[in-house]
Amino acid sequence: MGVIEYRPIGVIHTPFKEPRGTPIQPVAA
User: Fold this and answer.
1) pLDDT at residue 2 greater than cutoff 70
2) What secondary structure letter does DSSP report for 21?
3) Residue-level pLDDT at 26
4) What's the N-to-C CA distance of the chain in angstroms?
5) Residue 13 has what DSSP assignment?
């Protein structure tokens, strides 16, 4: 997958609770 789209996939388990301005890595990584 070359194009990474950011979509609200239910609940994302991340140490950050901000939807923007945070280093969110793709699940396929």
Assistant:
1) yes
2) S
3) 61
4) 10
5) -
